[in-house]
Design a protein that fits this description.
This protein has 352 residues and is of the alpha/beta class. 38% of the residues lie in helices and 28% in strands.
């Protein structure tokens, strides 16, 4: 699925750098095309500048320059940026079949009608959702389902300016929400095509759930609970520092089991509500929940989520379909850190 707000359309890329601008850490991958395969050349996970206001172009430029250094110097490469759920919007709507340029104009001037918000200062991109089985007569029917991505024009312009100033080539800016489903299609093709699954990405400030049924995207929803709220809640209830709470959450969760279960429960209930909605609407059951994000380092978090969701939950490796071109020390780490790279890898696939 491609939903770029800024895109060099029609160009086939031999390599691309994809950067996921997260709230706590920035995750970046350098992918290279090798025939019909892709190679992971390098990756980096860098602390993000954290402060309450929007990043200035200057600070973001310095940050991106640092990320570029972490991936190795050399010729400037095309860059795909995945932006957070607070800076982008991803919705499913129904609209008549029309060219993409006409769709963008229609959404710009009729955003209240289609998206229930005034988004006149946003830029848009769209992708029609084509069912695997479709009645030929329905092709010319009045309405079709499509995914709509949107972000403020000023945000897109600032991001593009920062990428250029950092010595890279701005190629695409995409909603981070599309990352997991894109990566899952490549990494777990059988499950993607044949099963009814939920993908949950546990972020810093927010988490999101995507439900796919037989290769079709059916539902996506953002939940305003992430790892930060769990860690902050643990620090407050135990009267310890944030860093201590984070270390306990990941390394010694059984020591604080009742506290953690109480903090994870609200997230589980919100995710379960999305699963219930899908199952009731479609009369189908979710067979598996695939979980990604930094919090998957804790087996306890997975177990607590599974108890709330009442569906088997497991982590998955978004780099599974990639050949490895990593240095030896990173080869030893890739399985452990791969779930954190899900959004970056998924965003990269739309850049080739």
């Amino acid at each position: 699925m491609e939903l770029p707000f800024l895109s060099s359309r029609g160009k086939k890329r031999d390599q691309i750098v994809s950067i996921d601008l997260g709230g706590r850490t920035t995750k970046a991958v350098h992918l290279q095309r090798r025939g019909d395969r892709f190679m992971l050349v390098d990756y980096s996970i860098v602390d993000a500048p954290i402060f309450d206001k929007t990043l200035s172009v200057e600070i973001l430029t310095d940050h991106l320059r640092n990320v570029g250094r972490m991936l190795g110097n050399g010729k400037a490469k095309p860059v795909t940026l995945a932006i957070s759920v607070t800076e982008s919007l991803l919705r499913q709507i129904e609209a008549p079949l029309m060219p993409a340029d006409d769709l963008r104009l229609m959404l710009k001037f009729n955003s209240k009608t289609y998206l229930q918000q005034d988004l006149s200062d946003h830029v848009f991109d769209c992708s029609y959702i084509v069912p695997k089985t479709m009645d030929p007569k329905a092709v010319n029917s009045q309405k079709h389902r499509l995914m709509v991505g949107a972000a403020r024009k000023q945000t897109v312009d600032d991001l593009a300016a920062a990428v250029k100033a950092a010595g890279m080539i701005p190629d695409q800016i995409v909603p981070g929400l599309i990352g997991p489903i894109n990566a899952f299609e490549f990494a777990e093709p059988d499950a993607f095509c044949k099963e009814t699954v939920a993908l949950v990405d546990l972020g810093f400030k927010n988490s999101f759930i995507t439900i796919a049924d037989g290769g079709e995207l059916k539902l996506n929803r953002v939940v305003g609970i992430g790892g930060d709220r769990i860690t902050s809640g643990l620090a407050e209830t135990m009267n310890i520092s944030y860093v201590e709470a984070e270390n306990i959450k990941i390394g010694m969760p059984m020591e604080v089991q009742p506290n953690l279960e109480a903090l994870i429960s609200p997230l589980g209930r919100e995710l379960r509500a999305s699963i219930d909605f899908f199952e009731h609407q479609n009369d189908k059951a979710i067979s598996q929940v695939y979980v990604s994000g930094g919090a998957t380092r804790s087996e306890f978090v997975l177990q607590a989520l599974q108890a709330e969701l009442m569906v088997p939950c497991k982590t998955w490796n978004p780099a599974r379909f990639l050949q490895m071109g990593l240095e030896s020390h990173k080869m030893n780490e890739i399985e452990q850190v791969a779930p954190q790279l899900t959004v970056a890898i998924g965003a990269a696939t739309s850049g080739f």
